[in-house]
Design brief:
Layout (H helix, E strand, L loop, with lengths): L1 H8 L8 E3 L1 H18 L3 E6 L6 E3 L1 H17 L6 E8 L3 E8 L33 H11 L3 E7 L3 E9 L15 H9 L15 H4 L3
Parallel strand pairs: 2-4
Antiparallel strand pairs: 1-3, 4-5, 5-7, 6-7
Length: 212
């Protein structure tokens, strides 16, 4: 997470545009998180607008956005709650929303949740604590893909995070991540207090983030 954020802030994150159907990514992510949701007796559902055409975007970045939003939603939703994913389009944009019935976010804290290392609200349990980078990464990924992220939340009633990106977007001369000099990457990571080491850019299983 730290290195991903450093690469994006340095303008060095590679974008790989492919054609794909959003429902396939949503289904894959729900299947990945379903065991974790079932462990907390959380209902995990999706609603996909009929007739959504294939998207031309970076599917791995869309997957990473959903991974962080679902991880965050399940983390802060108590047992017996609900988490849902909605996918729709306005014709020009792909709109992804993740809603939960979790603890919610106070109005005065809603502008802070996308800041690095920021975890706001009530005292966190060990299971709820984390790096504080997930929502920052969502914001930077949305910007990288030409879009934005919004938040609607009510304390004690839950939150909805909505990411809007172009449905069809062409990458323009992306700089390959492999072109980063090791010294530069180490320096960027050092800004966030993390040692640098080569690693593949693949999502970690949820279990690694949510230890019991």
């Amino acid at each position: 997470d730290v290195l991903d954020l450093a690469k994006m802030e340095a303008g060095r994150m590679e974008v790989r545009v492919e054609q794909f159907h959003p429902s396939e990514i949503v289904d894959a992510m729900l299947n990945m998180f379903r065991p974790l949701a079932e462990k907390k007796n959380i209902a995990l559902t999706s609603e996909i607008e009929p007739g959504i055409p294939p998207a031309k975007q970076d599917p791995s970045k869309i997957q990473q956005i959903l991974w962080n939003l679902l991880s965050n939603a399940i983390k802060f939703t108590p047992e017996g709650g609900r988490v849902s994913v909605r996918v729709e389009t306005d014709g020009a944009h792909l709109i992804l929303s993740v809603s939960d019935t979790g603890i919610g976010i106070a109005p005065e804290d809603q502008g802070k949740v996308f800041e690095k290392f920021r975890q706001v609200g009530q005292a966190l349990t060990r299971e709820q604590s984390g790096t504080g980078l997930g929502l920052s990464i969502v914001r930077e990924l949305a910007k990288l893909l030409g879009g934005n992220v919004g938040l609607k939340s009510e304390l004690g009633r839950g939150s909805t995070f909505t990411v809007t990106v172009p449905l069809h977007w062409e990458a323009t001369s992306p700089v390959p991540v492999d072109s980063l000099e090791p010294s530069m990457l180490a320096s960027l990571a050092g800004r966030y207090g993390a040692p640098w080491r080569p690693a593949k850019e693949t999502p970690r299983p949820p279990e690694e983030t949510h230890d019991d």
